[in-house]
Every structure is written in structure tokens, then in C-alpha cells.
Design a protein that fits this description.
Blueprint: H1 3-24, E1 39-43, H2 49-58, E2 64-68, H3 76-79, E3 84-87, H4 94-105, E4 109-113, H5 120-123, E5 125-133, E6 136-139, E7 154-155, E8 159-165, E9 169-175, E10 181-192, E11 195-200, H6 204-213, H7 249-265, E12 273-274, E13 284-290, H8 296-308, E14 314-317, H9 325-333, E15 337-340, H10 353-371, E16 378-379, H11 399-406, E17 411-412, E18 445-448, E19 454-459, E20 464-465, H12 466-470, H13 475-491, E21 497-501, H14 507-523, E22 528-529, H15 531-543, E23 545-552, E24 555-561, E25 570-575, E26 577-578, E27 581-588, E28 591-592, E29 597-600, E30 603-610, E31 616-623
Parallel strand pairs: 1-2, 1-3, 3-4, 4-11, 13-14, 13-21, 13-22, 14-15, 16-17, 17-19, 20-21
Antiparallel strand pairs: 5-8, 6-7, 6-9, 9-10, 10-11, 12-25, 18-19, 23-24, 24-31, 25-30, 26-27, 27-28, 27-31, 29-30
Helix pairs in contact: 6-7, 10-11, 13-14
Length: 624
């Protein structure tokens, strides 16, 4: 072989190895691609670096890239190209430490999660050689970063290192428990040289994962004495502080990170972001129905009632002989979703990967054969059975999510507020108006496993579950649960996607409160969707990016790139104030737009709506 051919052969091998490394290390090119994006997430595999990207996408900061600290690109020159660098929990070499110190000293902006103690100087803290696990933080709302955020103590999972202030400003304090404060910071900001540095003393993305998904050490274990292993078993033994359910404590900590990003961006340029909900809504409702053993004639009245209210829902079919192809086609054409209700209850006490996978595949084949349904997009399992072991029988609290993702399913709705007759009482929290979200979150995000690898399927909490209330004969509580979630989302900035379950075989109980829910949503102009429509919106939102960001002569310019279409609009948020200047004019593709402002968590933002599936050139002009 010639030397030239040999080099070509080696180049192909290197490209293949790079592709495989990216695949197995989960270093997805995400919203960042190879564009010159202003935010860099950098760290080491296994410390939730890619999940940090999912957090940023949830918050709408779709202008970031993810890289490894072991990358050959990593250097001071590389970091200086970025507006903001986010360092995930990573043990640094002395060489890496020097690069980060020089980056901040020379004007860089750094955020770090549970930073290596070698970086204490740039964060203005000193190590106390102590730690605090499974504790709380409290945000200082009087600080510029904490403005508009909840001051009530917020639970975190994992370990926080104990430092004392040594020049830094405290943004949030560490608490031993929900009420007992300490003298030590949970989050700090510090000016160092010409730059700025913010440190979270705990691993924020790890804590968010465990708050939302439960205790990974409980995977595959029966903990609540309710028939069958469920995802909710992982919230037992006091894992969730239920007194915090109505404040979405995980989401509030995510928003603290967003405020940190916006604070650091004030030294460079304002950064646009996407809003949580479609259009400029403050809430959204999805409606689900587990078919169980009901028949077509029994489904018809419920579907007709829902349709008459202008709402849509999904029917999860357990047995394909329950309804005809014509019925499925007719309702699908009206915008209702038909999907599978996987039944692995025969091994509910110990579900395994192989059997669960075969159950999913068998029902998919039947749905395709009888109805022509080629893809199942969202899912709820019969009894919420949750496989907690991987294909090798090893504990994995996302095994079920991985099985579903492997089978092309995009959204899981198996986390549900049902804890009746548990040996731990109502361990998921209060009922009625004060129910809230036991996952600490009202947002919809992708799963992440305990190694920090993102699973390509969204977790959507079923927070209004009919059976929880039917067994108590409490139709008023069922409605009030829904109303409380919506009121807090609309009026108190405790934003939530609301998922209502209305079994057909329990429609005798749920009809009146459900119709009242649909009326209340309609009176507040909140749509009620089948879950697949929400899934399609989230895909469009997360895929869209901001690129070509520039701030010159008081003008912020950027491009919105979007290739996935949706019937509803994406809302883009831009800070209204930037260094004492206010937005004076906005154009999209050269056409002047009206200025529409919304106040969100302490700050005013310009809201622009665009149709997904197109590219847009945006120019925002600031004026003193």
C-alpha cells in the first residue's frame, strides 16, 4: 500500500473512532453543532455534563456547545472564544486549573458545579474540609441574581462542599435541613481579575436528576407496598420533602442557574432564549385515558364530551379487540391520539428487561397490524409497571425509559401521583389544592441515567390522577388539584405542564370534575392537548437554535434556525434591559415588530413569536 493510500486509510479509521467515541460518550452535538455559540459546557463523562445541556434547553438557552475537558481543543485560547463557560463537577489537573484561572483573570465568565478546590481562589471562597449531604439551600432574593426567585428553603440531593466566604458574595445559603440555616454559602459570585465566577457548592444537574426521577439506589425495589414495582417506589423513605411540592423546587434551582447565565451575559451581550410553553402561554394541559378493558361503545361518550369542549386526549389501548379500525381512524382524524397501554403486570413484582421489551414489541405489532399505527409516541403502562434493571439484570432507574426509547417512544407518562394504601402513607404529598408536583418540577425534560447519560425520551409527570381521588370519593379534590396547579402556573410563576388522567372505566366518577377542568382551562385560554402534540412541540423547541449572535453599536443580532414544524409558535425571550439600556426597536427578517413585554421571575423580557420550521434574522436595538 502506498504512503498516500495508507494515510487515507488511517484518516478513515480516526474518523470512525471519533464517531464511536462521540456515540458512546453521549457527546451529542445538540443545539451547538459546530457553530460559534457563546456558551460552552465542559467537563468529564459521568458528571452530568450532557444533562446540563438538557437543562439549558429546558430553559431555552439553545446557543451552547458541549465538549470534554480532555479534548485536544481545550486551551486558554479556546475558552476565550466563549462568553460563558459552565464547568461540570470535574477533578482538575494543575495544568487545567491554571487554564481556568487565567481564563477568568483575563476577563472570562465561569460557572462551576461543585468545583475542584483548586479553583477556590477565583470563586472567593476557602475550604472548610467538610461537606453536607441531602440538605437544602435558600436563595437570597435581594441579590441581583436571586431577584424574583423563591426564598423558601429548597431541597437538593447529593453532597455540597462546605466553604467559607473569602471575598465572594453569597447568592444562596446552605441549610442543614428545611429550617436550620448555616453560615456557609450554597452559591457564590465573585469578581476575579477582569472576569467573573459563580460556583454552586453542589452538583446542580445531578440533584435535578435525582429530584425529578427519584432515588436511583431504589431502582427495581418494592418500597411502597402498592402492587407492582413503579417509578414512584423511588420516592419513598422521605426522598421528597412533600411540603415543597407546590413551589417546584427543582425548577426554581434551574431558574437560579438561568439568572446566573443572564448575570454573566451582562458583561458581554444579552442572550435570547426560548419560552417553556407554546406561543406565550403560561400553562398547558394534556389529557390521557388508559383503555383498560373498556369497549368502543363505552369510549364513545367520553371522547364526544371531550371533543365538544374543544379538547383532545390519548387512548392507551391494552387489548386491540376493544375498538375497531374505523373508530380509531375517525378519532385520530379529529386530532386524538391512539397509542399502546403495555401490560406486564404478570411480572409486576419483578419486571425484567427481556420480558418488558417483548411486551412492548408485541403490542406495537398488533397496533400496526389492526390499525396501521406504525409508531407509538407516548406511553403509560398498565399499573405503571417500571423495569428497574438493565439487560444484564443490573439496577438502573432509567431502564424502563431506555426500553421505551429503544422502541421509538418519545414521551413517558408513568410517573403519577398515586400513593393510596401505601405502607408509607401519602408519601407523595398532600391532595387537593395543595397537591403540587412530587418530582419538584412542572417542566417536561428528558431522562438521564445515574452515569449522567441522557436518555432520548421525555419525562412528563401525571400530576392529576383520577384513581387517587376516586378511591377517596373526592371529586372536589380531583378538580381542586387541577385548579391549584393551573392557578399557581398562571398567577404565581410556579410553571407547570398539567397531565390529567381520566380512565374510561372511572368516568362515572371523573366526568363532572373533568368537564369543570376543561371549562376552567378554556376560560383561561389554556389548550388541552393529546400528549403527542406536546411531544412534537418540545422536539421543535429543543431542536431550534440561536446562531450568529452579535452585539454591536447597541444592536443585538442573531438568527433563529428551526427545521421542525408545528402548528403552534415558539416564543423567543430577550432581556428588555441591558446595561441600563432598554429595547427600542425589533425587526424580524427586516420587518419591524411590536414590542410585547412579559415579566418573568423578577425581570422583563421582550417576547417574540415565530412559526417553527423556518429561519429568521432578528435585530434588537437598545437605547438609553
Amino acid at each position: 500500500m502506498s504512503k498516500k493510500k495508507s494515510m487515507k486509510h488511517l484518516n478513515k479509521i480516526f474518523l470512525l473512532l471519533f464517531f464511536l467515541e462521540s456515540l458512546f460518550c453521549n457527546k451529542t452535538v445538540n443545539a451547538a453543532g459546530n457553530e460559534n455559540y457563546p456558551i460552552l459546557i465542559i467537563g468529564s463523562t459521568g458528571h452530568f455534563d450532557t444533562y446540563t445541556g438538557e437543562i439549558l434547553k429546558t430553559e431555552g438557552f439553545n446557543e451552547f456547545r458541549i465538549d470534554s475537558i480532555t479534548s485536544t481543543d481545550f486551551s486558554l485560547e479556546y475558552l476565550k472564544q466563549l462568553d460563558i463557560v459552565i464547568l461540570t463537577e470535574t477533578e482538575l489537573t494543575n495544568h487545567q486549573k491554571k487554564i481556568f484561572i487565567s481564563y477568568v483573570e483575563e476577563g472570562g465568565n465561569l460557572i462551576a458545579f461543585r468545583p475542584d478546590k483548586k479553583l477556590a481562589t477565583i470563586f472567593g471562597i476557602k475550604n472548610k474540609r467538610a461537606s453536607l449531604s441531602e440538605a437544602y439551600i435558600s436563595i437570597d432574593s435581594l441579590s441581583s441574581i436571586g431577584k424574583g426567585l423563591i426564598t423558601e428553603s429548597l431541597q437538593f440531593h447529593g453532597t455540597a462542599d462546605v466553604f467559607r466566604l473569602h471575598g465572594a458574595t453569597k447568592i444562596a445559603s446552605l441549610y442543614k435541613n428545611a429550617v436550620d440555616s448555616t453560615l456557609y454559602p450554597a452559591v457564590v459570585v465573585n469578581d476575579y481579575g477582569r472576569g467573573h465566577a459563580i460556583a454552586f457548592m453542589y452538583n446542580l444537574p445531578e440533584s435535578i436528576a435525582y429530584t425529578r426521577q427519584g432515588n436511583h439506589l431504589f431502582a427495581g425495589q418494592e418500597k411502597d407496598s402498592i402492587d407492582g414495582i413503579r417509578a414512584m417506589d423511588m420516592f419513598t423513605d422521605g426522598w421528597v420533602d412533600t411540603s415543597k411540592n407546590t413551589i417546584n423546587q427543582a425548577d426554581e434551582q434551574i431558574r437560579l442557574l438561568s439568572h446566573c447565565i443572564e448575570k454573566l451575559s451582562s458583561y458581554t451581550k444579552p442572550l435570547p432564549r426560548f419560552w417553556y410553553f407554546p406561543d406565550t402561554l403560561k400553562c398547558l394541559v394534556t389529557l390521557t385515558n388508559d383503555g383498560e378493558d373498556s369497549k368502543e361503545a363505552e369510549f364513545e361518550p367520553q371522547f364526544a364530551d371531550v371533543d365538544l369542549k374543544g379538547a383532545k386526549m390519548v387512548l392507551y389501548i391494552k387489548e386491540t379487540d376493544s375498538v375497531s379500525k374505523k373508530w380509531v381512524t375517525d378519532w385520530s382524524n379529529r386530532g386524538f391520539e391512539i397509542a399502546g397501554h403495555f401490560d406486564d403486570t404478570r411480572q409486576a413484582k419483578n419486571p425484567d428487561w427481556r420480558t418488558m421489551d417483548s411486551v412492548i414489541k408485541d403490542l406495537k405489532i398488533k397496533l400496526n397490524s389492526k390499525y396501521g399505527i406504525t409508531n407509538i409516541h407516548t406511553v403509560v403502562n398498565h399499573w405503571f409497571v417500571w423495569c428497574g434493571k438493565d439487560s444484564n439484570g443490573v439496577s438502573d432507574f432509567t431502564a424502563q425509559a431506555k426500553l421505551e426509547a429503544n422502541n421509538g417512544i418519545g414521551m413517558d407518562i408513568n410517573y403519577a401521583h398515586y400513593d393510596n394504601n401505601s405502607n408509607q402513607g401519602h408519601f407523595l404529598g398532600a391532595m387537593g389544592t395543595r397537591q403540587g408536583n412530587f418530582t419538584g418540577s412542572g417542566l417536561v425534560m428528558k431522562f438521564v441515567d445515574a452515569s449522567g447519560a441522557v436518555v432520548d425520551i421525555y419525562q412528563h409527570l401525571n400530576n392529576v390522577y383520577d384513581q387517587q381521588y376516586m378511591e377517596h370519593k373526592d371529586s372536589v379534590g380531583f378538580y381542586n388539584c387541577f385548579k391549584g396547579l393551573m392557578d399557581r402556573s398562571l398567577n404565581n410563576e410556579v410553571y407547570s405542564f398539567i397531565s390529567v388522567k381520566a380512565h374510561n372505566n372511572e368516568y362515572f366518577f371523573s366526568k363532572t370534575p373533568l368537564m369543570n377542568m376543561l371549562d376552567y382551562a378554556s376560560s383561561n385560554n389554556i389548550p388541552v392537548w393529546a400528549p403527542v402534540k406536546l411531544l412534537e412541540f418540545l422536539k421543535a423547541k429543543d431542536q431550534a437554535t440561536f446562531s450568529n449572535l452579535s452585539y454591536t453599536n447597541e444592536q443585538l443580532s442573531f438568527k433563529i434556525k428551526s427545521s421542525i414544524t408545528h402548528s403552534n409558535q415558539l416564543a423567543c425571550m430577550v432581556p428588555y434591559l441591558f446595561n441600563e439600556k432598554k429595547i427600542n426597536e425589533v425587526t424580524i427578517n427586516g420587518i419591524r415588530q411590536s414590542i410585547f413585554l412579559k415579566h418573568v421571575k423578577g425581570f422583563d423580557y421582550l417576547f417574540l413569536t415565530v412559526k417553527p420550521g423556518n429561519d429568521y434574522d432578528v435585530v434588537v436595538t437598545y437605547l438609553k
